[in-house]
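Re: the multi-chain job from yesterday

Posting the exact lines I submitted so nobody has to dig through the queue logs.
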Amino acid sequence: MDLTSPLRTLIPSLDSAVLEVLAGTESSMSLAQVSKLAPRGSRPGLALALDRMVEHGLVTATPANRGEMYRLNRDHILADSVLSAARARATIFARIGEQVADMDQQPLHVSVFGSFARREAGPVSDIDLLFVLPDPPDDEWFEQVGRLGEQVQAWTGNPMAYLVFSLADLAGVVDRQEPIVESWLADCVTVHGPPIESVIQDAAASVGVSTP
Amino acid sequence: MSPTRVSLRPITRSEGAGRRRIAEKYLEVAEIATTEDGAAINVAVGIAVLAGIAASDAICAAALGERYAGQDHAAAVRVLKRVDAQLASKLGRLVDMKPSSHYGDTLLTPRDRDRAIKAARELVQAAKDRI
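And the result, structure tokens for all chains:
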């Protein structure tokens, strides 16, 4: 699924673009504001989508000086479904964090990096995970990651890809100035343990190499 | 667990034996590549993955008379799981190493390479036992 626009999986039409914007705030918004924030759709198209949802009561329209102000009606019976779908990305990250917390040989750090972290992923993109462990993991640990991958695919339809490093191996990667380190520092989303910056500093300090 | 469609292609027993011979050759080359570290680790792991995939095709040929027909290695794992879950798990761990070689030249360690070669050997041996 497209976790950047999760509502689009349920509602392929422009209505999901409108709902994504309105689900992000409890305030009212003008058509111009919705149009500015919507990930797709022309202003007339978004206006039609808003009209449809006002008709069904899912969005309220309040007259203002210039046109109407629109707001997601959070009392509507479908509002919880909309909000739940809009939060899918955060929910997936939280679920991964919960699964990791139950693993034997606990990782020090787990984060999502790559296109999902940058909100650039498409419906079939891999969900990339970075695992850092105190020591190199054994075969049993990889079995657990394999099961996590199956779950992630069942939850989202997206395959899970992963990189695994012991703290010492991570220090080596930092020391060799692999370009991916900059990418982790720029946009990875931590789902377990301390932020990657701290982990990299600890790894580098443990073997006396400098950090980027 | 397979939420996506998997495309399969019929494969005869003799074609399966051909895939097994290819798997053995890939493994032989991967083992030769283990003499060097650094970026050569990516090469050894990449070839070990190919050995594992070819071995999996041979195993599926013997057991199912069909094999996975696409480019998605994860789907190949799901097909092998229909034959043998343990072997599928070994193939899964093997193909899971591919991202490491895509993301950087030196992200894989000699330990990763040894794991890959071990998994490839086990899959090739399983293929030899079956076809």
